[in-house]
Design brief:
Elements (H helix, E strand, L loop, with lengths): L5 E14 L10 E11 L2 H6 L8 H14 L1 E2 L2 H15 L4 E9 L7 E9 L5
Parallel strand pairs: 1-3
Antiparallel strand pairs: 1-2, 2-4, 4-5
Helix pairs in contact: 2-3
């Protein structure tokens, strides 16, 4: 991935979903905290000042929310990978960094999670 690309950040998207391997985790929704970095080329939008020339982060966030609220995963790794797939196959984004955390999943921690980086080529 071209590291010179511009970035759009979505911080601390807090949603609820079924996630985990233990039986009690499979019964009720848990909080998950999502952070996204969308790698794009923002030069055209920077010059035109038009939403049509960039990625609408509200639309991306809405789509990720829909996916997560309907999902049912055992592993945060699987959830993160599928969030990346949704973003990269449905939006004109070159790459994405996805961080998924489960607050309070391990005693004495604020949260545990996984962070992945994927590019469009990973899903073609």
């Amino acid at each position: 991935m071209n590291t010179a690309l511009d970035q759009i950040h979505v911080y601390d998207l807090l949603l609820r979903t079924i996630i985990g391997v233990k039986p009690d985790e499979r019964e009720k929704r848990q909080d998950v905290l999502i952070n996204l970095t969308l790698y794009i080329d923002a030069r055209t939008a920077g010059q035109s000042d038009k939403i049509k020339d960039t990625v609408n982060y509200k639309t991306v966030t809405r789509r990720v929310t829909q996916h997560i609220e309907k999902s049912d995963y055992f592993l945060v790794e699987a959830l993160a990978g599928n969030i990346a797939r949704v973003i990269l196959t449905e939006f004109p984004i070159e790459g994405v960094r996805v961080k998924v955390e489960k607050p309070g999943a391990v005693r004495f921690t604020r949260s545990v999670g996984v962070e992945i980086v994927r590019t469009r080529e990973d899903f073609t």
